[in-house]
Amino acid sequence: MQYNNIRFGNGIHVPYTSAERKAAKRRNALITSAKYLVAAVLVVFFLFPYVFMLCKSVMQPWEVNGSVPVHLFPKDITFSNYKIVGQFARNFGNTFIVIAINAVFIPLSACFVAYPLARHKFTGKKTMFAIIMATVMIPTSVLMVPQYTLYTQFGLTKKLVSLWIGAFWGGGALNIFLVIQFMRVLPKEMDAAAKIDGANEFQIFARIVLPLCANIVLLIAINTVIGMWMDFQGPLVYLRGAPEKYTVGLAFYIEFNKDSADFAAVSAQLMSMCVVMTLLPIVLFMFFQDRMIGGIKVGGVKG
User: How far apart are CA 202 and CA 194, in angstroms?
Assistant: First the structure.
């Protein structure tokens, strides 16, 4: 913070004294130090569980549960616990298939639904938008039984298709809402200019509007990837009884809930798998945080 050389007293410009400037600087330094101290405490508080997990994942099995006194950092670092990851190779493959399809078609279908609602006027537009947003109020658990029954009748259970077929049906009300808010910010004069040049509606959408929605599309895609990567409920409901189709989240849960005599070894392997499961969300956020935040900020400019 910069301090002026004058202050206002009774309507008169009075120069700061040297003592007042020093006091102001000390006060500002004290406030800044307090802010950094609070931030440091919060960082330690939120990162401690992750550091604990990371340290336990590279400990020897005897050191995880049998060492006395208990310590945080490993005395003998080993990466043998990470060999367990190879047992989930097929499950990782299943997960990546589900993620790839959903990450492409959920934002794309959301854009298709949002385009006419954001860029055009037509009869029933407000009613349609209200119905779409009303679906947000329906609890997921209420829809689970009828959706499972529907999938069973169509023979979609115990197949990966049950986890990605919904990507083609609108992309979800909240995603549609975000895209609508984003598209409303784009100037409609571009659409008129494109029509004068002979472009049809699909060309306007595909060549003008959709490329300008890259930030919000990326935001939805990343949220989808993280959601599907960590999803447990969906695979548990629709893939139960088909081990060869399990995603990594479900296989991870089943594997580490088996009874085991070697609890120490299982605990170390559990920590290593937990570390692996956190890598994808961390990497995505590190590389795309600016564009994700930009998508949220621009999408919330206009209501």
Answer: 11
Segment-wise mean pLDDT, segments of 10 residues, the chain, 303 residues: 48 62 84 93 91 88 69 83 89 95 94 93 92 89 89 92 90 91 88 89 92 90 91 90 90 78 72 91 86 58 45
Indicate the residue type of 164: W
Q: What are phi and psi of 240, to 5 degrees?
A: -60, 130
| Structure tokens belonging to residue 6 | 């004058």
> What is the DSSP secondary-structure string of 41-100?
HHHHHHHHHHHHHHHHHTS-HHHHHS-SS--SS-SS---GGGGGGGGGHHHHHHHHHHHH
Among 170, 191, 63, CA closest to 112: 170
Tell whether pTM > 0.70: yes
Rounded CA gap, 228 and 217, in Å?
A: 16
- Alpha carbons 282 and 166: distance in angstroms, whole number: 26
